[in-house]
Amino acid sequence: MDIGTVVGLLAAACTTLSYVPQLKKCWETGSAGDLSLRMFLILATGVALWIGYGILRSDWVIIVANAVSLMLLSGILWFKLRPQTSSAPAQQPADGQALRRSEERYHAVVESTRDYAIFTTDRAGRIADWYPGAAAVFGWPREEILGQPTDVLFVPEDRIANAPRLELETAAAKGVAPDVRWHQHKDGSRVFIEGKVVPIAGIHGQEGFLKIGQDITARRRAERALRRSERHLQVMVRELQHRTRNVLAVVQALFESTVREVESPEAFRRSFSTRLAALSRVQGLLAPLKGDETLRFEDLLRGELEAHGADLYSYVTLDGPADVRLKSRQVQILALALHELATNAVKYGALLSPAGRLAVRWRVDRTNDRDELEVDWLETGVDMPPAAVLSGYGRELIERALPYQLDARTLYELTADGVHCTIAVPLDDSE
Q: Residue 25: CB partners within 8 Å, gap ≥ 6?
């Protein structure tokens, strides 16, 4: 064996031994790993050259040794070039288990979500899947709702407006459609849903729709109640401002008229105090009234007579329907007019003299196509002194202020037998 044969044999042995670990790895993994085709060509070229060298020398030792190396290299190349399907059967069960676990987690989440209505439909909008959250929100059991169109969940006015169809068309065209509206519960009540609708894509294209929404009915109603409360508060504030301005204007008028009538500070104090007390009583009657609430005329009249201690006198006659009601804007000035009449009767008229009699009668009469409250104040049995003439403020209030502010018709006269005053106040809804 010459030196060339020895070198060729050693080269073949080294090449063969280097291929064995790689071939073992290919057998175990089913893949040639990261060996590139370029490297295969270089190795194959080297082996082929040694085989060619052995043929030229007719040296079968070199030819056989390198042929073995070429066979091992061909085996590795086969692993490199074959389709990578041998590992799929082993991997498929694991992928199937992962998919099942994922589906189980999804169903567990959906089944336990009761605050959200979650369900799916086919492409025509018929309900395909119905989860417990949807049953809790809408009241429909699964066995009754499956296969029905989503129209049954919409309120009548939205069904008339084709809202169910438009919602699905929007979701299909844009990928999502907002669903923020009132919906219909099975029992006919309404629930407010805040959610959306999205299309479900499958291997064959769009397969249906997923609808998910939260029931925010309680929050919605609380927000509406809060807005109503805010509006009511604004109305009350405006009403308070209006009443305050009115009261201040009345107090100023009382002050100025009282100053003109009296001759001493003590007389001013007494007169002004009684008028302020009358105004205070009126405010006490008005304070509980809300919005368009009204006050009974009889309560107003009895309150004023009671303040003068005359409501239970046997010689005082009150006669009229009990349920004649006045608006808040009518009460204040009419109460002041009754106060002036009662004060004058206490000082000079029927409430001072034992022989005096006071009769206050009222009725509702239809005049000039409107209802009017007609009040007749009649004092009799009184020897009226000259001083009994109603004060300037009282007569101005009855004869000028009432007609101006309430479009009332009034008559005040002092007869030999006592005071006679009639007041007719419109009760219609016009301001």
A: 33
H or E segment and range at residue 425: strand 418-426
Question: Would you list the DSSP string of 57-113?
Answer: HT-HHHHHHHHHHHHHHHHHHHHHHS-S-TTHHHHHHHHHHHHHHHHHHHHHHHHH-
> Which CATH number fits the domain 222-426, given the four candidates 3.30.70.980, 3.40.50.360, 3.20.20.80, 3.30.565.10?
3.30.565.10
Distances in whole angstroms, Cα of residue 348 to Cα of each of 258, 274, 279, 305, 397:
18, 16, 22, 15, 19
The CATH number fitting domain 3-81, selected from 1.20.1280.290, 3.60.21.10, 1.10.3860.10, 3.30.830.10? 1.20.1280.290
Place of tokens 């492409």: 123
Would you call 227 helix, strand, or coil by DSSP?
helix
Q: For the full predicted model, state whether its pTM sits above 0.70.
A: no
For residue 5, is pLDDT > 70?
no
With vertex at residue 167, the alpha carbon angle to CA 161 and CA 173, rounded to the nearest 5 degrees, is 130
Class of domain 111-215: alpha beta
Tens of pLDDT, residues 367-422: 777 899 999 999 998 876 665 555 567 788 889 889 988 999 999 988 888 889 99
